[in-house]
């Protein structure tokens, strides 16, 4: 014990008799009012104080919203005590009204899949007829995150996807606190919702932005304190419901959620509606100093660093091994955090996927130390949830002001801003977690790889499938020769959309203008700093929906369908078969332009022999295109919405998902005979938790994260990005990996090392 500690103990002992006596324990005991007794019979599971709205026998508690006929006409099934939507009969609405309420119901989407996306088992629970918890078949059915099962529709995605397979009964348990309004109609406190899907919390005391809106932003308008709730008839999707009961929660109203504390004016700088394209040096947008900041990136320094990075990659830079414990060595990383405290993480981009990353970091044991988003309305969920955490619009200012108070940074911005934010964090010695794709260009990926090595930081790219079991099995089975020598691979995705259906995001469209987008072309909302959102990209006028989602298809900000899903779907193949180095890449596309990605494409990579590995062909499909299904798939021969086929000279391997959750041999009979499996040679990640893997390494763990920038993420991003080079140049490319150039195509260089705007 130190002298200081000993002195403290001695002082406490000397003054022990001077302490006041402890209060009697009875002073803090409350005996009244006595809580009422509520019994829950095991036979029904329904609390004794619940109101049963549907037990399968009748629809007496309901009415139709059909203006011509209020009689409920959904189909009853007495045998399973359920009711099923009947097309063109309207929604069902409770006759009784509710305010604060607990709701239990069970629902089932059709077992037979006829559509995809929002067309599969779509319904909803509209509490008070206004606030929708989405019902949808979300089992292996990609759609926008805030439109899947468990989402507060068009506002907040679920924390996790807890969906069961189509045709199985699912449960919702909902606690809803109604909004309160002042006498003048203004909002006193917003609505809040907790939702549990199949026993899993998917909304945790979520603060709603207002009633559900299909188009536009939600906004509260005063309404009655109690209103009926509604079950949606969405275009006749045959969704079924059963066992519906509610409990009134008319307890004293909760206190209003306080307004966010006012922010300094330099952080809430009024947006600049006229951003200018003046230089190739990044500066602070809110400083009067016209010189570059110490961590600003000039094009000259970028190209110098890129050249250094290219040389380092080509000629053997210092290498951080994936595991050092076996050699008896200590972690090679710098700025490690003691295991006795939490890792302090700053988050850049906190809406949508950023909020999921923030939640994942907290669940894995991290501490949120700062929050940054250029769109405060999008960041409101995180801001309300962490009212005492400093808030910023500009990540550059956050990194400077919070430098000594953060250990690591999570970057979840649009693709074009991954690189500047990540590089600035790395150069300050901060560990980084970056959403996929790692960067917007190949040149940026190589710079980040060199910078990560130089500064010794722990890194992880957010392609969560790399931590999953299926990815490891794929590599182990291929290494063991289970299907022989692999010479051809086919991968596909339904992004950005499939023909005849509403796209997940638009591609093959012109840039919106006043003439083409009259109803959507407007000034950016007050909560969005459009200049900061554009960041290093060229100046463009604000257009609705580009932020926060549709940017994916526009080349200035996103990397199209390939960039969005490639780092997931192509990951296992890249890792298992070393798909790196020199190669030829060609593309066949439907549509597309210098502004926007194509509606659909097929991209073919051809790699020569690589060491002991033979030549191999890899083919990528998007926009609804798919390879020919192998006959070994079976009678129906239907491929999944996203997945990969591996063709070896001894068999076929099939991964029927976007994230390599699983892999199997074809035909099914061969999989059943496959009882003697190869030994596990690759370390498993507990609960496949990529956040915990990253935090463990920051706290001196024994292994590098699997998708770290140096060993994996930079190379995977380069592999994926080569396909976009072929798309955007419109020609087959011959990639020279050593020099980082497309041989004989100098026009491609601006796509490999791009220009940057001052903002």
UniProtKB/TrEMBL annotation:
One of its GO terms (molecular function) is hydrolase activity. InterPro entries: AL/BT2_dom, Gfo/Idh/MocA-like_OxRdtase_N, Gfo/Idh/MocA_oxidrdct_glycsds, Gfo/Idh/MocA_OxRdtase_bact_C, NAD(P)-bd_dom_sf, TAT_signal_bac_arc. Residues 50-247 form the 3-keto-alpha-glucoside-1,2-lyase/3-keto-2-hydroxy-glucal hydratase domain. Residues 255-264 have a biased composition (Pro residues). Residues 343-462 form the Gfo/Idh/MocA-like oxidoreductase N-terminal domain. Residues 521-589 form the Gfo/Idh/MocA-like oxidoreductase bacterial type C-terminal domain. Pfam families: 3keto-disac_hyd, GFO_IDH_MocA, GFO_IDH_MocA_C2. Residues 255-295 are annotated as: Disordered. It comes from the Bacteria. Residues 274-295 have a biased composition (Polar residues). This is Oxidoreductase.
């Amino acid at each position: 014990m130190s002298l200081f500690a000993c002195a403290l103990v001695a002082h406490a002992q000397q003054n022990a008799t001077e302490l006041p006596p402890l209060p009697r324990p009875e002073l803090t005991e409350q005996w009244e009012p006595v809580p009422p007794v509520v019994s829950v019979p095991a036979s029904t599971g329904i609390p004794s104080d619940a109101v049963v709205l549907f037990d399968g026998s009748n629809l007496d508690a309901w009415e139709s919203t059909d203006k011509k006929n209020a009689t409920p006409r959904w189909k009853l099934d007495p045998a399973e005590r359920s009711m099923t939507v009947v097309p063109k009969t309207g929604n069902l609405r409770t006759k009784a009204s509710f305010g604060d309420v607990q709701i239990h119901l069970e629902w089932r989407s059709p077992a037979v899949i006829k559509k995809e996306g929002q067309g599969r088992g779509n319904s909803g629970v509209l509490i008070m007829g206004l606030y929708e918890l989405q019902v949808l078949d979300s089992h292996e059915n990609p759609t926008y995150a805030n439109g899947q099962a468990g989402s507060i529709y068009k506002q907040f995605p679920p924390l996790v996807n807890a969906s069961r397979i189509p045709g199985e009964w699912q449960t919702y348990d909902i606690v809803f606190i109604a909004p309160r309004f002042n006498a003048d109609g203004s909002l006193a406190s917003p609505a809040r919702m907790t939702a549990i899907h199949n026993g899993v919390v998917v909304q945790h005391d979520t603060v709603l932005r207002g009633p559900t809106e299909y188009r536009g932003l939600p906004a509260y308008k005063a309404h009655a304190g109690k209103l009926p709730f509604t079950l949606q008839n969405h275009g006749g999707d045959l969704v079924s419901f059963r066992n519906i009961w509610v409990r009134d929660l008319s307890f004293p109203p909760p206190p209003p959620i306080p307004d966010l504390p006012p922010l300094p004016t330099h952080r809430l700088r009024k947006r600049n509606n006229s951003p200018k394209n003046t230089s190739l040096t990044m500066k602070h947008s809110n400083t009067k100093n016209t010189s570059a900041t110490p961590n600003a990136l000039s094009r000259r320094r970028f190209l110098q660093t890129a050249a250094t990075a290219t040389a380092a990659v080509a000629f053997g830079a210092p290498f951080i091994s994936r595991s050092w414990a076996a050699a008896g060595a200590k972690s090679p990383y710098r700025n490690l955090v003691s295991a006795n405290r939490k890792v302090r993480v700053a988050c850049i981009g906190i809406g949508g996927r950023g909020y999921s990353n923030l939640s994942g970091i907290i669940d894995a044991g991290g501490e949120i130390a700062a929050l940054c988003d250029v769109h405060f309305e999008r960041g409101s969920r995180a801001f309300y949830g962490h009212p005492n955490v400093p808030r910023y619009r500009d990540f550059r200012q956050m990194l400077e002001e919070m430098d000594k108070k953060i250990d690591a940074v999570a970057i979840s911005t649009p693709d074009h801003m991954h690189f500047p934010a990540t590089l600035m964090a790395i150069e300050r010695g901060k560990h980084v977690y970056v959403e996929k794709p790692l960067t917007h260009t190949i040149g940026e990926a190589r710079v980040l790889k060199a910078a990560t090595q130089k500064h010794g930081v722990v890194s992880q790219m957010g392609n969560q499938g790399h931590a999953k079991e299926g990815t490891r099995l794929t590599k182990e089975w291929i290494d063991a020769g289970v299907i022989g020598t692999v010479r051809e691979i086919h991968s596909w995705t339904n992004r950005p959309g499939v023909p005849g259906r509403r796209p997940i995001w638009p591609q093959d469209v012109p840039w919106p203008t006043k003439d083409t987008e009259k109803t959507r072309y407007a000034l950016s909302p007050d909560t969005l700093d459009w200049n900061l959102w554009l960041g290093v990209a060229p100046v463009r006028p604000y257009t609705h929906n580009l932020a926060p989602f549709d940017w994916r298809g526009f080349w200035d900000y996103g990397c199209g369908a390939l960039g969005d899903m490639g780092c997931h779907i192509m990951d296992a193949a890249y890792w298992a078969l070393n798909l790196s180095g020199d190669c030829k890449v060609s593309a066949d596309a439907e549509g597309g332009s210098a502004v926007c990605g194509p509606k659909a494409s097929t991209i073919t990579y051809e790699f020569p022999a690589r060491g002991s590995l033979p030549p191999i062909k890899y083919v990528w499909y998007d926009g609804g295109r798919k390879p020919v299904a192998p006959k070994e798939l079976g009678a129906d021969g239907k491929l999944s919405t996203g997945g990969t086929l591996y063709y070896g000279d001894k068999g076929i391997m099939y991964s029927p998902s976007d994230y390599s959750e699983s892999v199997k041999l074809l035909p099914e009979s061969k999989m059943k005979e496959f009882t003697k499996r190869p030994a596990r040679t690759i370390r498993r990640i507990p609960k496949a938790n990529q956040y915990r893997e990253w935090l463990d390494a920051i706290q001196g763990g024994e292994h590098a994260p699997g998708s770290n920038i140096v060993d994996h993420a930079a190379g995977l991003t380069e592999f994926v990005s080569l396909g976009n080079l072929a798309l955007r140049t419109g020609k087959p490319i011959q990639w020279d990996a050593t020099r980082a150039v497309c041989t004989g195509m100098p026009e491609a260089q601006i796509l490999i090392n791009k220009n940057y705007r001052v903002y």
